[in-house]
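Submission sheet (multi-component)
Chains listed below:
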Amino acid sequence: MSPNSLQKPFSGLRVVDLAWVGVGPTVSKYLADHGAEVIRVESATRPETLRRAGPFANGQDINNSGYYANFNSSKYGVSINLKHPKGPQILKRLIAISDVVTESFTPGTMAELGLSYEDLRKVREDLLMISMPLYGQTGPWANYAGYGHVLQAAAGFNHLTGWPDGEPIGTGIAYTDFLVPHFAAFALIAALDYRRRTGEGQYIDFSQFEAAIHALGPTILDWTVNGQNQKRMGNRDPEAAPHGCYQCKDGEFVVISCFTEDEWSKFRAALGRPDWSDLERMRRKWSRLSEQDEIDRHIGFWCEERTAKQVFSIMRRFEVPCGIVKSPEEMQIDPQLRHRGHYWELEHPTMGKRTYDGPSFRLSKTPGELTKASPLLGEDNERIFTQLLNIDEEEYNELLVEGVLE
Amino acid sequence: MSVNDLDTNSGFPTGALSGYRVLDLSDEKGMLCARLMGEMGAEVIKIEPRIGHQARRRGPFYRDEKNSEHSLFWWAMNAGKYSVTCELDSSEGKKILHKLVEQCDVLIETSVPGSSRDRGLDYRTLSRVNPSIIVASITNFGKTGPYRKLPADDIVASALGGHMYLNGDPNRGPVRTTVQQAWAQVNAQAAVGISIALYSRGLNGGLGQQVDVSMQEAMSNAMDNAQQTWDILKINNYGPGVGRMREGQIGARYIYETLDGWVACLGYGGLVGLTADSIVDWFNESGEAHVLNSSTWRKRLSMMDIFTEEEQNLLEEVVAKFCKKRRKDDLVKEAQKRGAGWAPVYDPREIVESVQLNERDYWIRVYHDDLGESFFYPGPPFRLSETPWRQRGRAPFIGEHNDSIYSNLLGLSSEDLRTMRRRMIV
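Outcome: structure written.
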């Protein structure tokens, strides 16, 4: 079979994406970027949160959010007002000819609309559906509201991020929004593979909270096994010295870490084997670990005399693990990411040419491809409702007039 | 693969990935990925050198006993796998590996690009042995490009992946997400890539392929909207401390101290926006809404007016004082009742004791027969109705399954095994 005759992994699959904000759309983005026909169902009566969040290109408008755009490459967009009695009916007709439904409403919402998995299975027997709210479908927190920015607090990331003498600052972003979608996507695709092999669909109850904890495995076991309740430790690591972040002459920061004796000896060579590094207490890792303040002080002085690029280049030459703390601006011109083609530039009807994140992996024979920029709200209404759903002109106009497709 | 295959194969028969066999040659960048595949039904065989994988020396350790069977890092990342030992640098070791590859669906490796060929791990060689094999190469920077051979660990990938720039404090500089998130990220994202390749294989006549995963890129996908903020506005977001970053500006504090710890909440705890009235009401019940309990303030808060710096400080102070006198779980419960999305700042102990997780029977008791003890492990990261996630038991000892895998799977005789042991291959 020649590569040209290969099908994109998810070609022929249709996905109805009712999810919003970061998590759900990232999951369906994987499917869209690998060949599925993903239809985002939104409504102007209750616009998706990210469409109203910046940064905006060419002025604040529901179609101009770069935040929204990045999560929704390669997808199509329709609008259905689910509050209108006919809304859920139309949606159900669309789901009847689809393979996958993704959603992240407050638990119970889909059932209220007559769109629970049991309801939908009646119109599509082998349907695969995933629900992915913050805390799952059951339990006392099931209806709790929030975003990734606060879920990171419940899931331990705040407690574990920051300086030991400071507040639990957490990451500066809605961290779990950028962690748990990968778990959800893996579950969904594995279930798709099972469906391909057996013809059976199923329902996935995904709790963002429950998935996030798997990124803290050893830390959790340290409590359940040893009764050790770990704390944040700045940039230190209990098993490496040095292991830190240092400001350079140009104000930029670099990180340097040495876990092994080999790395330490290369590091010493990179510094020109200064006397302090040859002191008895610096010779073994176990004793270096209690000299971290002193080590950091010396590295701090050394870095102050060099630019971040100089430090990186010296460390690189000596094969010491080191990196510049790259700003968003520097990421866009990073030679490695450039070489890998990580960022995609896509032309959007109202935002112009914009940068999108690509997947972190390349499949050698059926690689991902960001086929188009994010959809405008309701951009594909006519095609999807009249051609795909075969709604005749009369009914389509009626739906428009009645505000069902708003 | 047909329905019938699902009944006859390895792994556990009711998993979504049941019927697949995974060879795990990975380090920290791939071990969690392989474990997740196992918990989804695949049979996962970890290949280690005879002295054990180096990750067995990574802490923390059971009762602080530093030995290769007591690493909690190892336990967490390798639970439920089989372990065989094999010296891959020897030509006989390679032969064994190739025999295993013939019977496997996925191979996960993490060697530095350029060195894998020497060990016979490159895709070209492996695909000749088994054209259906999916080879996942999880590396620091990807298989190609100018950085491909650079050494990197978790913090280096966080830095060069741009994520770390967004964490920290303007006064103290960037800070790492303390527990190893570059590893967590690349593992989870690799699992997505591999499952796509498996699905693609079914669609494309059983053809395998290579999945080339980059830890740097995995981290760069954890930059929120910072990349777009630069692209569109030419503004660099950065670490905002306890504030919230928006387009280069540090916004309202989202972490507040309580009587017993901390809570997290956006928009001054919901004082600003749709929930304004109900939060003012709440604070006012104990006379703690101060000036905010006026029609002018209520209106301005509801309509998300623009506030002066002084007014912002006032809002922060009202929330801070209110929180300081109360317990975090009580605060969160009441705020949620009023529609505001608060969450407690939990430490590992509190996560384990969380009512939500316990109500959902999240924690799984895993028995360690060698210690005669059971410990709680994190439970289902996803709950599939027909093919449930399943924890597969404790992590293996070094080479624990040499006999069963080598004789049952590869059909080696006990004489063969003795020879291999003598030649120090297994």
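Remark: Residues 181-203 of chain B form the longest helix (23 residues).
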